[in-house]
Amino acid sequence: MNVVNEWAFIGVFMAVAWIFPTLPIVLAAFVSPRKPNAIKMQTYECGVETVGDTWVQFRVQYYIHGLVFLIFDVEMIFLFPWAMAYNQLDFFAFGAGLLFLFLLTDGLFYAWFKGDLEWS
Predict the structure, then answer these.
(1) What's the rounded Cα separation, in Å, for the pair 112 and 64?
(2) What pLDDT sits at residue 1?
(3) pTM, to two decimals
(4) Contact at 8 Å (CB) between 85 and 56?
(5) Among positive and negative, which fits the CA dihedral 106, 107, 112, 115?
(6) Is a pLDDT exceeding 90 seen at residue 26?
């Protein structure tokens, strides 16, 4: 088989990979209705009228809380199958799970002692 033909599949795949996400965005730009008015251009926050400046600066600590939550939320995705297959695990898989738990616990204690988990 010719080498060019083998790489043609990759070229087609790359072209399709660019076309599929780009096509809906471009199509929406042409087809979507545009009727801006003063009410639609106002800042909307959960149905409540905004008071004061809407461009306020949030503390970085809120993002750290979100990242810590996300890390430990994703942890459960990995721990649940490990716990369900606990009886069938060999020693290496058991050790890898314990290492994973140790690293997550170490990260939790690091964030805790650094004071990142304090809500202020």
Answers:
(1) 12
(2) 54
(3) 0.47
(4) no
(5) positive
(6) yes
CA distance 55 to 110: 32
pLDDT tens for residues 87-98?
Answer: 888 889 889 888
Q: Quote the tokens at residue 98.
A: 């314990």
Residue located via tokens 């399709």:
16
What is the per-residue pLDDT across 48-81, written as a single tens digit (0 to 9) for each? Answer: 666 777 677 777 778 888 888 888 888 888 888 8
- Token output for 79: 């721990």
Q: What phi, psi does 45 have (nearest 5°)?
A: -130, 95
The structure tokens listed for 110 are 């690091």
Give the whole-angstrom CA distance, residue 18 versus residue 53. Answer: 40
**Helices marked H in 1-120:** 3-31, 60-84, 91-114
Crossing angle for the helix pair 91-114 and 60-84, to the nearest 10 degrees: 160
How far apart are alpha carbons 98 and 11 in whole angstroms? 43
How far is 117 from 110, CA to CA, in rounded Å? Answer: 10
| Amino acid occupying residue 72 | F
Class of domain 3-114: mainly alpha
